[in-house]
């Protein structure tokens, strides 16, 4: 404080930066020490613009082969210590060093809008500086949120629907509005916190993770939310994508829709095993009637705007399996199982062909 009691604001420390070439002029820079990652017993300084990090050479070298090369190379001197000028932002270097000094662990349970900036910084930096464990952990988070296995995808969608149902006070049952037993007036809108798949695709591309196992579920999730373009937010969903990936979205949607429509329109020929010809004829006729008059119209009624064919096929298979919808068509139980199995098979084909639809195969 000055003589009047007014606090005196500290100036950033001015340092003379000695360049490797002694014939060149020196720089005088106003530096700020990072509040938590400037260790007084450190022996190497990393600088990002005016922010300084003082770290331990052995620690950063141990975990990153790229940093090891940097800190062992010829460098400037600053405050009597080796000085490495980093090209990244202070936030990026902070994220990298926090991972190194916290045991290479990422203490983030889910990928949400709130955690996305930190996760993005960590994945970019750890990929660039070849620190494998945090990268593997983040990629596993992505796989958990957007699984490539169909059964895991179904489980994820069911859990998400249950969460969404907590916000709905009334539901329709057989055309009648009834109270929703899962309704929770205090539930938070968790769906809005999930990071958009387009942003995740762009991040993976930036870090050169091009596996179809990672990307295909994300492209499907993206198209589930962006088949209806237009309105005030036009361009929002695909804005993070490259031009090539935007083209993949457009082409993939058309291919997925075309194969979905083909599968819904084609009445299956099943290997029915009946001792009597009359029974076989009755079941074959029932299958044709059910497929043509019930399944196909239901799946095709909104083909031009359908957003989730994988989920629609599952819904139809569950209906056929549990509601007696096939028995009223005089389809025997054995043939009914064949019909459901064929629906599930076609659904699996759609899912497994996603990498090809979206041109993601290497």
Automatic annotation (TrEMBL):
Where does the record place the BTB domain?
A: 42-103
Q: Which residue spans traverse the membrane? A: none
Enumerate the Pfam families for this protein. BTB
Recorded superkingdom = Eukaryota
Q: InterPro entries recorded for this chain?
A: BTB/POZ_dom, SKP1/BTB/POZ_sf
Give the protein name, as stated in the record.
Answer: BTB domain-containing protein
Q: Which organism is it from?
A: Cristinia sonorae
């Amino acid at each position: 404080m000055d003589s009047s009691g007014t606090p005196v604001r500290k100036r950033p420390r001015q340092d003379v930066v000695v360049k490797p070439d002694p014939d060149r002029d020196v720089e005088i820079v106003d530096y700020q020490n990072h509040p938590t990652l400037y260790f007084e017993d450190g022996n190497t300084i990393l600088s990002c613009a005016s922010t300084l990090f003082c770290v331990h050479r052995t620690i950063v070298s141990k975990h990153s082969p790229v940093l090891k090369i940097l800190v062992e190379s010829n460098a400037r001197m600053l405050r009597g210590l080796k000085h490495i000028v980093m090209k990244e932002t202070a936030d990026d270097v902070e994220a990298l060093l926090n991972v190194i000094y916290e045991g290479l662990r990422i203490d983030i349970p889910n990928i949400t809008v709130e955690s996305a900036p930190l996760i993005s910084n960590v994945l970019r930096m750890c990929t660039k500086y070849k620190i494998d464990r945090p990268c593997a952990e983040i990629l596993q988070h992505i796989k958990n949120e957007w699984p490539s296995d169909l059964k895991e995808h179904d489980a994820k969608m069911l859990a998400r629907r249950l969460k969404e149902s907590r916000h709905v006070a009334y539901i329709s049952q057989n055309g009648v509005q009834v109270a929703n037993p899962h309704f929770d007036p205090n539930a938070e809108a968790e769906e809005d916190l999930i990071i958009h798949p387009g942003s995740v695709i762009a991040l993976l591309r930036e870090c050169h993770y091009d596996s179809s196992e990672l990307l295909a579920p994300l492209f499907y999730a993206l198209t589930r939310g962006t088949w209806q373009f237009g309105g005030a937010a036009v361009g929002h969903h695909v804005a993070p994508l490259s031009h090539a990936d935007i083209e993949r979205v457009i082409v993939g949607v058309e291919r997925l829709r075309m194969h979905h429509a083909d599968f819904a329109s084609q009445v299956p020929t099943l290997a029915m095993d009946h001792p009597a010809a009359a029974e076989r004829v009755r079941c074959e006729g029932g299958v044709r009637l059910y497929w043509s008059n019930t399944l196909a119209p239901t799946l095709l009624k909104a083909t031009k705007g359908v957003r989730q064919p994988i989920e629609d096929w599952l819904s139809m298979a569950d209906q056929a399996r549990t509601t007696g919808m096939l028995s009223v068509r005089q389809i025997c139980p054995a043939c009914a199982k064949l019909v459901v199995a064929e629906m599930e098979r076609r659904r699996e084909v759609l899912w497994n062909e996603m990498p090809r639809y979206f041109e993601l195969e290497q």
